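In this section we walk through a basic example: taking a raw amino acid sequence and producing a predicted 3D structure, encoded as discrete structure tokens. The instruction is simple. Fold the sequence below.
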Amino acid sequence: MEDILALMIPIIFILAMASVLILRPITKRLGDAIHQVQQDRHETRIEQAQLEQIRGLVEGVQERLELLEQRQSFYESLMEARPQRRLEGAADRAAERALN
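The resulting token sequence is shown next.
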């Protein structure tokens, strides 16, 4: 039994050293890959936040543009009605003068 134990200790030590030498580069690469994935996710979150901010700004500009279009349409309708009123008013005044 002591002979088997005496043989097992160096074998286990050699296997442990070999596993460390073999598995360390693999686990290091795996850790780097996991770190890169986490970093990409963080950058994606930042990009999503920036995208949401830009989307909000564009929606604000769109609302202001729609308001400006409404105001311009209203102004144009007033300007179209204004010359007609002047002509109608001028025709009425001319008719009154003709009658007097």
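Looking at the output, two observations stand out. The mean pLDDT is 85. Residues 2-99 form the longest helix (98 residues). In the next section we compare this with other chains.
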